[in-house]
Amino acid sequence: MNEPFLFLHIGGAYGTLIIHSLLAMVLALITAKMATKNLQIVPRGCQNVMESVISGILHVGSDVIPRDLAKKYLPLTGALAVYIFFANMIGIIPGFESPTNNVNQTLVLALIVFFYYHFEGIRKNGVGHYFAHFAGPVKVLAPLMFPIEIISHISRIISLSFRLFGNIKGDDLFLAVLLMLAPYIVPLPAFALLTFSALLQAFIFMILTYVYLAGAVTLEEEAL
User: Fold this and answer.
1) Cα distance between residue 161 and residue 87, in whole Å
2) What pLDDT score was predicted for residue 224?
3) pTM of the predicted model, to two decimals?
4) Please, what is the angle between helix 103-125 and helix 188-217, to 10°?
5) Is the CB of residue 94 less than 8 Å from the CB of residue 123?
6) 196 vs 89, 90, 99, 215, CA distance in Å?
7) Which residue among 58, 92, 139, 169 is least enclosed by CB atoms within 10 Å?
8) Is the dihedral of CA 16, 19, 23, 24 positive or negative?
9) How distant is the alpha carbon of residue 26 from its chain centre?
């Protein structure tokens, strides 16, 4: 719909997706570099902002999973949150497109989470114990519970990917319509709303990653 207005519309839809994904990664890396370039005991500027972000992610993660595990998985959840935030924010700038408004991008992010939390669950609990958990606590109901659990886990891929894709696609369409109706009047309230939406979607993806990891690696606590 808005391809003619993109500054970086190169190589078709997939080329545009790759370029904007790389742009989001570069912005995330630049922010990380700025935050760690001159570390101080009393943080200032970008270091202060990023320390607040990391502390917030760790605090929220600790409500879902034990704090030591929240710290362990912080590199994954933090990287996802920061990247998704920048990927979402790119689309707010006229002439650019959010890579997360493409289902191929969000599907890849969802698959990363899906395979990683299963890998961690198997590594921590063993193959047998991990998949035995899918059968439920009552052995008689195992033939019923096991396929239900399989479907439930597969549906998480769809849930993660389409939630992010649908919300950001809707935000981009909303902004495109506003700019067509009032191209010379910057709709500041709309930009504020879209910025909040970009932050919210990154937060939801991050917290769901913690939830899925908690369900995979803390089977003993669930059994209690």
Assistant:
1) 14
2) 42
3) 0.87
4) 30
5) no
6) 10, 13, 17, 28
7) 139
8) positive
9) 17
- What's the CA gap between 62 and 57, in Å, rounded? 8
CB contact set of 174 (below 8 Å; sequence gap of 6+): 190, 194
For residues 82 and 25, give the distance between their C-alpha atoms in angstroms, rounded to a whole number.
9
Backbone φ and ψ of 10, nearest 5° = -130, 130
Report CA-CA distances (Å) from 164 to 85, 116, 120, 167, 208.
11, 19, 24, 5, 12
pLDDT in tens, 164-206: 999 998 888 888 787 777 766 656 777 888 899 999 999 999 9
Other CB atoms within 10 A of residue 53 CB: 16
pLDDT at 166: 92
Q: Amino acid identity of 167?
A: N
> Is the CB of residue 116 less than 8 Å from the CB of residue 108?
no
Instruction: Give the pLDDT score at 13.
Output: 67
Helices (H), the chain: 12-36, 45-62, 67-72, 74-90, 103-125, 127-132, 142-181, 188-217, 219-223
Task: Convert the pLDDT of each residue in 75-102 to its tens digit.
Answer: 999 999 999 999 999 988 877 888 999 9
Q: How far is CA 192 from the centre of its chain?
A: 20
Q: pLDDT tens across 33-74, in order? A: 988 888 888 778 888 889 999 999 999 999 999 999 999 999
Where do we find the tokens 């114990």?
Answer: 129
Angle at 85 (CA atoms; ends 167, 162), nearest 5 degrees: 30
